[in-house]
Amino acid sequence: NAGVMQNPRHLVRRRGQEARLRCSPMKGHSHVYWYRQLPEEGLKFMVYLQKENIIDESGMPKERFSAEFPKEGPSILRIQQVVRGDSAAYFCASSRWAGDTQYFGPGTRLTVL
Amino acid sequence: AQTVTQSQPEMSVQEAETVTLSCTYDTSESDYYLFWYKQPPSRQMILVIRQEAYKQQNATENRFSVNFQKAAKSFSLKISDSQLGDAAMYFCAGRDNDMRFGAGTRLTVKP
Fold first, then answer.
1. Does A3 touch chain B (CB under 8 A)?
2. Is A84 helix (H, G, I), strand (E, B) or coil?
3. Is-contact B73 B29, C-beta < 8 A?
4. Who has the most CB within 10 Å: A40, A84, B48, B94?
5. pLDDT per residue over A21-41, tens digit each?
6. In angstroms, rounded to a whole number, what is the distance separating the alpha carbons of residues B94 and B90?
7. A66 closest CA partner among A54, A74, A83
8. Distance from CA of A7 to the nearest CA of B (A)
């Protein structure tokens, strides 16, 4: 059973470009969570999605950030007009149901030049 | 919402010895879960152990065990017979309506 998959593992963007991060949950998992980890810090919750629905986006910045989890395909975290402060590791996790254990992907390290 | 606090930024243990990592949490919910995750240099987040709040018995996974003190809102992780591969960042996390992580404890294992 493949784990949570994220791609790309590393992404370099220049200021003002767009970043798209992808997450494929574990088989049988319909709940997806995105977290951001700044250097030497813990994970900060960003958004929680089920198929085609955003359940909780209380951790998402109000501008430039969006997330989706379509009926088919991976979940996408999209950052428009990236700035240097967006440089971080972005982790995706998935679970079978809302209260179940979350299993994490390997993360995408975004570097903004 | 809740808070999770890890007061030890760094800890060190001799190989084969035992070490305890501290974590406190605060939640107003009666139904919640607590977790310890390990993050080695590869940055992968690996689940170490999970505790359901309604269970009085402390969770155990091989060399890893927790001391869950519900009244004190304490959830410490004990690593017995420490191995070099245990060296990593350890994050305590709690989940009620959402998931919150502590700031982490960096564990060094000395040979």
1. no
2. helix
3. no
4. B94
5. 999 999 999 999 999 999 878
6. 13
7. A54
8. 14
